Amino acid sequence: MEINIIGAGLAGSEAALQLAKRGYKVNLYEMRPNVETGAHKTDKCAEFVCSNSLGSYDITNGSGLLKHEMEILGGELIEIAKQCAVPAGNALAIDREKFSQTVTEKINTNSNINFIREEITQIPDGYVIIASGPLTSDKFAQNIKEFTKSEYLHFFDAIAPIVEKDSINFDIAFYASRYDKGEASYINCPMNKEQYEKFYNILINAPRMEQHDFEKGAKFFESCLPVEVLASRGVDTLRFGPMKPVGLIDKRTGEKNYAVVQLRQDNSAKTLYNLVGFQTNLKWGSQKELLQSIPGLEDCNIVRYGVMHRNTFINSPKLLHPTLQTIKRKDLFFAGQITGTEGYTESIASGLLAGINMARLIENKPLLELPETTMLGALTHYITNSENNDFQPINSNWGIVPPVELPKKERKNKKLKGELMSKRSIENLKIYLQSIFF
User: Fold this and answer.
1) N or C: the chain end with fewer CB closer than 10 Å?
2) pTM of the prediction?
3) How many domains does the chain fold into?
4) Tens-digit pLDDT profile for residues 74-107
């Protein structure tokens, strides 16, 4: 018996490792480098494309809770991520090259995984997990469309620029984490009102890359909006978003700032930093002008410019069970961003669930349908809710989890809310797993 997994990204790699450690033979297909995506830069498994951060590791945060749930479920990639971590305050950020190299080596050396570099254009028969990602090839996407009898939805995803640390002016820039939480691991470039207005005027007047015809009219995902789209919503939008200055004060001056650009470590050597929240589709010359208008980045060396690409996802509410099993065919599962789970952590988590459930299907055991009070359970129930007629990608957040009762005077206490919801989630997850003899 063999299981075919299409796509060796985050979800597919996790699913393959889950099945392999349970003794199952897996054919893991990856089309790169034979077929490029336009966004990936390597041919390695589990490549991080947009950013090197998996988000918060704080258990009182939705993304942080999801990571802890993955640990309880025996996640493989979350452990590799911790081994490849770089300083990022309360967030879990990784050396992306070391991470993907480690995952690739683990897959290549696993005797239960047959890693095949080949483009799949037809859904195979038998046990299959489709984790081909948001950049699924046109041929395979067409075959999935024919199988599902459902139109695809499209949105854009944008990538932030990366600069060399040695080119940053630390007479102006300073290290700090917001409110001094955790290690001071972010580089911060402060702006006064005049500097911000100059930056803003460059941004809103900068020319953008032209879109292909097939990309026009597509939707942006709200949590990954290009910086120029955010800026178009108003002059202060960025100051209350990715450039908010609160909790970031240069101790050398003690001055409050009008806006702050943050940079996050991108590799273990601490030589590369990406601009937080600066996904963009500006022309490269404009990106250089914009970045070098930021105080502290006047002479920055840009090693990767921002780009924008189309993402594709299926209409999961009409196609999937909360187990990630297709309604139409019980031996076929989907996992990763193609399901509408947005974010690196969420992609890994869905691959984890699909891999576990595939094994349980083969073993004639009940498939995991996690409680909605858990973050992964809430996420999978949200994307498979048949009443959702205007489906858009979603990431882990408290808004999709049933609320907890708080005393009236504590209802705005986000920290307490997170603590109580996380405690409930962990308790319910453990009880559920015990009830099904997991």
Assistant:
1) N
2) 0.81
3) 2
4) 999 999 999 999 999 889 999 999 999 999 999 9
